[in-house]
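ok so i was messing around last nite and threw this chain in just to see what happens. nothing serious, just curious
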Amino acid sequence: MAKVAPRRTPPPRARRQERKTNWVLLGGLIAVGVIGLFALLLFSLQNPGAAEDEDVVETIVQDYCDRNPDRCVVRGEANAPVTIVEVADYGCIHCRNFNLNTAATLDEMYVETGEVRWISLPYALSPTTQPAAEAAMCAVEQDGYWEFHHALFEQQGSDVALTRAGFLQAAEEVGLDAEELASCLDDGRYTQTVQNNVTVASQAGVTGTPTFFVNGLTLSGNRPLADFQNAIAATQES
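result:
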């Protein structure tokens, strides 16, 4: 029978050395973790736009509208201290609720008093709502955008919503020349404009509607009036 060599037990000093080595390794891992955490914190502080939807970002859409006034619709004082850009879709229920409820109060409190310049970016989330955005741009030619804009949201949920018949009905309701608006639609006069608007909104991070940019501060969704008041006050103080 083969003899089994007896197992050698390392002397106490060797065991102490092993424990010492393990502590050194653990200390190194902790140090690496602390450095990584510090680097992540530093990165987040240097890139605030990646944190929440209310962080200050570049005024991409506002600058785009200022450079291309024929692609956006503006109301309010040109030198107002605060600019709000609205990106909305005519098939969006949250956009409807905002425009039929909160919008009028904001207009009265801030736009009419000269504190806010309001910019509307005709926009479409899908091909289904693109014709409505084009029709709204056609209404600009007759100086009836805001009334037509409101009428399209009022139509939402009806049988004629987002249809050619609905656009012409809305035009007549707000006193526009329906035939002229129909001609504008048939020409596809603003098809490319709306597509350009969709592109720039995407570059600004818009993935849903409504989205608002308050001097570069992003507010997403149908926010209560208080959120707009806080955002306006914050941008005026900064």
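not much to say yet. The domain at 60-237 is CATH 3.40.30.10 (Glutaredoxin).
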